[in-house]
Amino acid sequence: MGSPVSVNVLVKSFCSKMRNRLHEKNFRSKLAVRKPALTDLHIQERLNFCNQFSSWRVFVWECQDKGRFSISVWGCMSANRLGTLPRIPGNLDATCYRDILEHIVMPEVLDNPFFNGLFYFQHDKSPIHRESLIKEWLDQQTLCLMAWPSKGAYLNPIKNVWSRVKMTISYRGIRNADELWDTAMSSWQLMQSDPRLFHSLVSSVPHRIQDVINRRGRIAMY
């Protein structure tokens, strides 16, 4: 009669061998994406947003991402291009965010393709985005801001861009933060060379919005 310890060892050994064989065949494990829990307020905010922008035109989308090696990056996109991908030293704070907006985003946006300044800018409800320093700077620029709903990340097409970056990273043997940065930058630059990609992602937003409306503000497919 075998002991629980020996059975546990055998199971672990078997699982380890199976995992190695699957890796040799280039199979990778994935976890199902967890859908956010929604309150009645979240649902109403999302419905209000989607009804307001159901006939939307042009936007600049932004997002920050952080990896397990404690590197932070910030990126933005429109239907015409992916913006510059700066590496953020340490953690993003309000001063750093304002500098990114002032010295990277605005020059790129006003140079091409929105030289006339006619665009909407989107960022989420991160505490940094709501700090007085950022609000004052945005007011000075007279930017058209979108009233972004809570729990609305799936409406943002740049999330799909980050997913592609993370997929590239998952297939590499990343050993340190600099390698992570190099891999992320290579993936970003590759996507920058494919305008059909970000154009198709941004073009999908009306469908995402309509899907939320059809579901009455609840979890959508994106």
From TrEMBL:
Domain of life assignment: Eukaryota
Gene3D superfamilies to which the protein is assigned, alphabetical: Ribonuclease H-like superfamily/Ribonuclease H (3.30.420.10)
Tc1-like transposase DDE domain span: 69-180
GO function terms (MF aspect): nucleic acid binding
Name of the protein in its database record: Transposable element Tcb2 transposase
